[in-house]
Design a protein that fits this description.
By secondary structure, the chain is of the alpha/beta class. The protein has a domain of 150 residues: 4-Layer Sandwich (Metallo-beta-lactamase, Chain A), CATH 3.60.15. Helix content is 16%, strand content 28%. The strands form two sheets. Strands 6-7-8-9-10-11-13 form a seven-stranded mixed β-sheet, with helices on one face. Helix 2 packs across helix 4. The chain is globular. It starts with a strand and ends in a 7-residue tail after the last strand.
Length: 229
């Protein structure tokens, strides 16, 4: 299995038999995801930065709401989420917007894709997403604040954490070399605050994360990916 970051909150997961693109985006802020091909597209939020399905090649199945799906050996569980915290008694009248988080399972591995989730998961959501091998967590404006993202990681206890969405429009996609862009992304204030709140450090940014089996290390890893868009 291979995980790539295409920019903003967009990630691509490749298994032996299928490719899933999560939260495809329109070109914006200097970032362009290119023209990825996919068998499945997941949409966490109907917004140009999360639902640019027309930019994905192929004839993918589009999943944008809760349910359970099985496509080409990939099992997807879609879970209702919200844009921001508010009093539950206020309901949708409070101005909250619905989001969808996804748990992807294939080849004996599981990946939690939080998409545009804007608040830490509820106990019910955490139960559905907990103990994933990989957690793709959005950090920054329009996503989880750094301390909220750290709380989410502690609640879900993944083996590997992959931050996305921080420094939207920055990094290597602005025409900088990969080394310079990666170093700049690593210094992003939202990411720095997240790592401090989590009490850990991140590994050197990688072009992609390749996994062949469940993580066996007792130490949680934070893996940075270079935006490939």
């Amino acid at each position: 299995m291979e995980i790539s970051w295409l920019g903003h909150g967009c990630t691509r997961v490749r298994t032996r038999h299928a490719t899933v693109v999560a939260d495809p985006f329109e070109r914006a802020n200097g970032l362009d995801m290119g023209r990825p091909t996919a068998d499945v597209v997941t949409v966490s939020h109907h917004d140009p930065l999360h639902d640019h399905v027309a930019g994905v090649r192929g004839q993918p199945l589009v999943i944008d709401g809760p349910g359970e799906y099985d496509v080409m050996g990939v099992q997807l569980t879609a879970i209702s989420a919200w844009s921001r915290a508010t009093d539950a008694a206020e309901g949708e009248a409070s101005g909250r917007e619905r989001r969808t988080a996804f748990l992807l399972e294939a080849e004996g591995l599981s990946i939690a894709l939080l998409g545009a989730m804007g608040q830490p998961p509820s106990p019910e959501q955490a139960e559905a997403l907990a103990n994933a091998d990989v957690l793709v967590v959005p950090i920054g404006e329009g996503a989880l604040a750094s301390d909220e993202a750290a709380r989410t990681v502690r609640a879900l206890e993944p083996a590997i954490v992959v931050p996305v969405s921080y420094r939207a429009g920055g990094g290597a996609a602005e025409g900088k070399g990969q080394g310079e862009g990666a170093a700049e992304a690593s210094a992003d204030p939202a990411l720095t605050a997240f790592l401090a709140a989590l009490g850990t450090t991140a590994e050197t940014p990688l072009p992609k994360l390749s996994l062949q089996a469940k993580a066996t290390s007792e130490r949680q890893r934070v893996v940075l990916l270079e935006p490939r868009g």
